[in-house]
Amino acid sequence: MRTASHMDRIAREEGLQRFHTGRMHSAAVLSHKAETQPAPSEDADHIKGPAAVRGLEDAHLAIIHFMNEGAVILSEEGNILYANSSFARMVKSSLRGLSGSPIHRFISPLGPGGIERQLKEENPGVHRISLQALDRSTLPALASFHPLAQGEDGPLIKERSNAAAIAIFRDQSDIKRRESLEAAERLARSIIEQATEVIVVCDDAGRIVRASDIAALICGQDPTYLSFEESFDLRQSDGEILYPVQAALDGRIMLRSEARLRCCNGKLFHLLVSAGPLRDHREEIIGCVITLFDITEQKEMEDELRKARDELESRVQERTAALSRAKEELERINEELLREIEKHKETEKALIKAKEVAEAAAQAKSDFMANMSHEIRTPMNAIIGMTSILMDDEKLSFEQRDFIETIRINGDALMIIINDILDFSKMESEKTVLEEQAFELRDNLEEAFDLVSASARDKGLKLSYMIDENVPDYIIADPNRLRQILVNLLHNAIKFTAKGEVKLSVRAEKAQDFSPALDSYEICFSVQDTGIGIRQDQLSLLFQPFSQVDATLTRENGGTGLGLAISKRLVEMMEGRIWVESEINRGSTFSFTIKADRARGEGRSLIGVQPHLAGKSILIVEDCRPCRHILGGYAYSWGMSPLIAASAQDALNWIQRGDRFDVIVLDINVPQMDGVAVAEEIRKYDRSIPLIMLASTAEQISPGIFDAYLIKPIKPSQLHKILTGIFVIREGQEQPKPSRRSEEAEEQPDHLKILLAEDNASSQKVALRMLKRLGYRADVAANGIEVLQALERQPYDLVLMDVRMPEMNGLEAANIIRQRWPDSGPSIIAVTAYALEGDREKCLDAGMDGYISKPIRIEDLSEKLSNIRPRPCRSNR
């Protein structure tokens, strides 16, 4: 294809040829004239001068005409007198149309004034301008203006006598085009190198001559050391060029055609290929440009999805076939059922009747459970209440007090066990209510240990617990529910541990999701044993109701399968969580957390130096390393100086050489020598030194030799109490203190008129004794009718109302009292056998002012009575 520049070159060559032909013809004519004419005279030179000049002018014009640069001859006014064909082509005009036109019409940015200045300057410069063509297009050019000097014979070009200058214009479009091409090439190279997609440039043979750096990175190679043609193989397995590439080399544009290419590392890629031809300035195809978009992962996912879809379709087909068969079977069964409908009508009636009977039985069962709860709690109220009263007797010996305390604790435990089944049913209906009260955490733990210590002792297991220093002494929570969880976990640990030990660890940290002003803690309890362990695949069954990981072991050791399920629910209600870690034949660790606030001002802490114990020396004779560690740790933390002996002989050696101790703690089961014999041997050297015996059972106690004794597991509070008592007695500082409740009873005036409404004689006795302890007296009514009759006879300040009573229950009686004496009636406190959330609402709706749950605790009763004030003298009539 011939371009415009090619045609211009041909035109210039033809013009030059015509110019040379004309010159040769003119020379021949002149030569002929010279031969035919006579020789010139001296005057002939003057005559022939104008002719010679005209010939020179013609030569100048011919040279200007055939110049490659555009040239114009200008008048003094800047009008075009003559223009060559190159200039006419630049401004896209005919030669005839240029004559007489002002030159500033075609030149920018030089205006008329600028051109006049150029015409007058003797040494004009070169200017970069734009030629304005007649079709309003522009052409970049370099312009220079040259004045035409006057000779001796006048102007150089006579026929252009008013010619002032000649202007030369050099076309700069090729240079601009080359610069644009270079800039475009740099831009293209930058795009290719920086592209996030693979861009490949190929020659006309399909060989890669340029590729973006991302191509090498995809192949896992360093772009610096990977040649372009090594990155991808653009040929198919048969050696033919990839179809999109070949199509682009044939002049077509291919968009997003899928192909598979193998890169230099052998990896096969799934790619979207887009390709287009690359042409030179003659529009001839010299290669192609290709973009490659990696869709390998997409293809792999599509393959996986296709496989999954095929598998799903296969399953659907199988399921459809199965459903079809099932449908046919159901239709057959349905036909049989339709034939049997008449026969089963009577059966249906019987089933309806049986359903009604079952519903009635379920209701009766519910009522029975409620009544049983009441009937069981009523005698338990007497047992626990009486033990609470006995505990206030200052005349009790240490052993008697321990027995009564054991009765009370086991009574509480029995109540918890009785409640387990009810707890589970309440939890299912979300009726469980937690109490919030301040209690000493260490006492709660020791009470839990008391409940399981007999079982551990029977199996020869060591029981111990450790409490971190950052654990608060007193917390606000539900002590019964916490003890229930601990007893459950400790009992399970003992049950499934044949030998070794069971250890309870307690740690705490400030709760992060509470305000620091609340002084809230997250307390973690961990029960660790050395038992049989639990398989990992059975852990998920642990906290499911009625689930047991090993029915054989459970049958051997007992258990309902509800304990852990109840514990899990209680822990969640305390805003905690429970989990287990276990290893077969190495043991298990059950851990749980609760959220609790610190209770302030609740007694004295056993953590830190104790005034009566600081500086005292103590000898501990114990063969069990954990027990030695625990006892020594307690003594050291209280400021004592402990010396620990692992055998009886070590202890006797120290005594015999004259070492002095303020107190000796001696294990009755110390090896090599009976503990009693060791004590007798010690008495030979020092009869005044206090001896404290560590026994596993109460039967091992020898009160004639030892000053005090401790039953394992060792409780820090009991050890502290015994040690303090020994040193107080020895220092003559013991002063008997009256009972707090006795003081309250003495100081409490008998000014409240109280009516006790209770149908059970044992409960009446317990309540009356508690009231007497607190300094009150009360009249008794056996049911709601007697309550109303008593209020008719005289006014009362307070009615302690049992909810379940014969003839008229407490709720009915409270309703009548509020209706009959709306303004002057007594305060009413409900005494309920089981304080469910619904029961409280019923009590409040009936007009009662509060409630106390059975078994009654004297502390709760005292608190309620302290809030009641005597009413002004008035009559109920």
Give structural notes:
The chain has 877 residues and is α/β, with parallel strands linked by helices. Strand 4 and strand 5 (138-147) form a beta hairpin.
Instruction: Give the total of beta strands.
Output: 31
Q: Beta-sheet strand percentage? A: 15-25%
Structural class: alpha/beta
Amount of helix = 40-55%
The tally of helices reads 25
Outline: elongated
Sheet of most strands: 7 strands, mixed
Mean pLDDT: 77
Radius of gyration: 58 Å
Low-confidence stretches: 1-9, 25-48, 551-556, 733-750
> Ends: how far apart?
131 Å
In short:
By secondary structure, the chain is of the alpha/beta class.
Q: Which tags fit this structure?
A:
elongated; 877 residues; disordered N terminus; 7-stranded mixed β-sheet; alpha/beta; 21% strand; 6-stranded antiparallel β-sheet; 31 strands
Secondary structure elements and pairings:
Blueprint: H1 4-36, H2 44-65, E1 70-75, E2 80-83, H3 85-90, H4 95-98, E3 107-108, H5 112-120, E4 126-132, E5 138-147, E6 150-151, E7 154-155, E8 163-171, H6 173-194, E9 198-203, E10 208-211, H7 213-218, H8 228-231, E11 232-233, H9 243-249, E12 254-263, E13 268-279, E14 285-294, H10 296-391, H11 398-428, E15 437-440, H12 441-458, E16 462-467, E17 474-477, H13 479-495, E18 501-510, E19 520-529, H14 551-557, H15 563-573, E20 578-583, E21 587-598, E22 617-621, H16 625-637, E23 641-645, H17 648-656, E24 663-667, H18 675-685, E25 691-695, E26 708-711, H19 716-730, H20 740-747, E27 754-757, H21 761-773, E28 778-781, H22 784-793, E29 798-802, H23 810-820, E30 827-832, H24 837-845, E31 850-853, H25 858-866
Parallel strand pairs: 16-18, 22-23, 22-24, 24-25, 25-26, 27-28, 27-29, 29-30, 30-31
Antiparallel strand pairs: 1-2, 1-8, 3-4, 4-5, 5-8, 6-7, 9-10, 9-14, 11-12, 12-13, 13-14, 15-17, 17-21, 18-19, 19-21, 20-21
